[in-house]
Amino acid sequence: MKETVLGIQVNTESYDELLPKVFDQIEKQQKSLIVAINPEKIIKAKEDQALKTLLNNAEFQIPDGIGVILASKIQKGQITSRVTGVDMMLRLCEEAAQRKKPIFLYGGKPGIADLAAKKLQELYPSIQIAGTQDGYEKDNQKVVAKINEAKPDLLFVAMGSPKQENWINANRDQLHPTIYQGVGGSFDVLAGNVKRAPQAFQKVGMEWFYRLMKEPHRIKRQIALPLFLLEVARGTKNNK
Predict the structure, then answer these.
(1) Do 88 and 49 share a domain, yes or no?
(2) DSSP for 10-65?
(3) 46 and 132 in one domain?
(4) Dihedral sign (CA 56, 33, 229, 184)
(5) Residue 2 and residue 112: Cα distance in Å, rounded?
(6) Which domain holds residue 28?
(7) What are 139-176's pLDDT values in tens digits?
(8) Which residues contact 11 (CB under 8 A, 6 or more apart)?
(9) Could you tell me which Pfam families the record lists for this protein (predicted)?
(10) Separation CA 187–CA 159 (nearest Å)
(11) Domain count along the chain
(12) How do residues 47-57 score in pLDDT, each as one tens digit?
């Protein structure tokens, strides 16, 4: 099921409800893109029609950001829990290991995808990592050929958004994988280069506050959240 937040579709399901649907797409050989939705992207999409189209055309839009949960509460919607990009990737990898579905990691600085792959192998010993490729290869056809030769079922692309989703959409018709997820800085997290917020912050949806404490310059981005929620509230009131 999906809910619309300021013109952007968002899945209402939890991790456990989404995973069977994602892997069912592999069995049906129906190529699918997973995008993470947060208030910042929703606000940008209001001014950027190409971004709005990209987000709404994805097969799965996960609610990555406490602001999306709050927005759903304001409009009395069905989204009750966050589905973060990095945790979705980890849950997909765990399930892929159990189902023997090979994965491929593409993006990041040289060596980072390899370190991320090593960490995934530690976390899920039975995982089949078909290959890795850093994001610095200039010949796109070489990248496509390498992925296709490896024949993975799932492809994780770390380039930052929306660059990673645009790359997926531009190439997926000629690519072997069925499931595609743009994962931003997730390879850096797995490689140990970037520390996530402690579990206590993650559980209550306060990762943004932890990052703000670590990086005060993010305050401009965080100010946008109250404005986003105000706009959702106005839209809800006007629709009554």
Answers:
(1) no
(2) EE---HHHHHHHHHHHHHHT--EEEEEE-HHHHHHHHH-HHHHHHHHHSSEEEE-S
(3) no
(4) negative
(5) 34
(6) 1-83+215-240
(7) 999 999 999 999 999 999 999 999 999 999 999 999 99
(8) 1, 2, 18, 60, 61, 62, 63, 79, 83
(9) Glyco_tran_WecG
(10) 10
(11) 2
(12) 999 999 999 99
